[in-house]
Amino acid sequence: MTKHIKISDFLKQHLQGEHGVALNAILSDVVDACKKIAVAIDKGAVAGNMGSLGSENVQGEVQKALDVITNDIFVEACQRSGYVAGMVSEELVDVIDVADEHKKNGDYLLMFDPLDGSSNVNVNISVGTIFSILKSASKKPDLADYLQSGAAQICAGYALYGTSTMLVFTTGNGVNGFTLDADSNEFLLTHPNMQIAKETQEFAINMSNYRFWREPVQRYIDECLQGEEGDRKKDFNMRWVASMVAEVHRILVRGGVFMYPTDTKSRSGKLRLMYEANPMSFIVEQAGGASTTGSQRILEVQPSGIHQRVPVMMGCKSEIDRIAAYHQVTA
Ligand code: AHG
Ligand code: MN
Ligand code: MN
Ligand code: MN
Questions:
Q1: Is the pTM of this model over 0.90?
Q2: In what residue span(s) does the Fructose-1-6-bisphosphatase class I N-terminal domain sit (predicted)?
C-alpha cells in the first residue's frame, strides 16, 4: 500500500514564508473542525440532526439543525489558534469578533460556509464545508477589513463529506487533496497537484431556471444540448448535485463547468462571494481553470457586503472563456 503523507506533515513542509506559522496553526484547527463535522453529519439521522429549525438565516433560508451544529463546531475550533481575529459565517448575520483571550497574535480573518449543500443532508447526498482566509490590516478588524477582493486570499479550501471525506486546499502554490483515513483518523495526501482537464463535455447547472437566464447563458446551454449536430460538434453530459463543493470537486477530478448565473429571480445570483465564490474561484484558478461572473473575474470583484451574492461560472478555462465571450457580445 502506498505510504501517504499526513496533512500535518504536509503543512509543516509546505507552509513557509510570511504566513507559514499562522496558516499551520489555523489549518490545524480547520482540520479538527472538519473531522468533528464529518462525525456530526455521519450521526445525523441517529442523533436526530437531520431536520430543519424554525429559524431563518440572513440569507432568508430555513436553517437545518446541521447548519447550526456545523457552524458552532467551526467557530469553537477555529478560534483556538490565536491567529484568527474575526470570522464570517453564512449562518451568522454579523462578523464574529474573536474574544481577546483567544487572540494572541490574531490578525487573520476566516470566512466560511459550515455546511454547503445543506438541502442534501436528509437525502444522504454529498455536502461540504468551504473556508477562505484573509490577512487583516488590524488586530481589531472592522467590516472594511473583511471586504477584500478574492485575489487577496492567502488560503482557500473545502471539506467534502462524500463517499469519502476529503479536504482540498490551496495557499497559492497549486491545489492538494487529502482523504480522511478512518483507521488513523488522519487526512492523507491522495490527490497532489490537482489540475482541471483542458477540455470537457460536462456541465453543471440547475436547468429548471432556464427561462430566467440571460441570453448568453441560454445560448451556451443550447449549444451544449445540440450535441454533435450543433455548433459545438460534440455531445455533452449534465450533472447537478445541488452542492457546490461536490460539483467543484468533480470538476477538479474530471473536468467540466459549474454555473449558477444571474437570473431574473435573483439578479445577483444565488451564491455568496466571501465564502463560496471566492474560495472556490481561488482553488479553480490554482488548478488551471477560470471563474467569472460573466462580466468580470470573480477574484477581482470588490465586495460591498459580507453576505453579498454573485453570479458564478467556473471550471474548464476554454469553456469559461467561451461563456465570458458570449457575455461580452451582449454587454
Ligand atoms: P448552502 O447549502 O450552503 O446554502 O449552499 C447551497 C448552494 C450550493 O451549494 C449549490 O450549488 C446551490 O445552492 C444549489 O442551488 P439549488 O438548490 O437552487 O439547485
Ligand atoms: Mn444555506
Ligand atoms: Mn453553500
Ligand atoms: Mn451553507
A1: yes
A2: 16-192
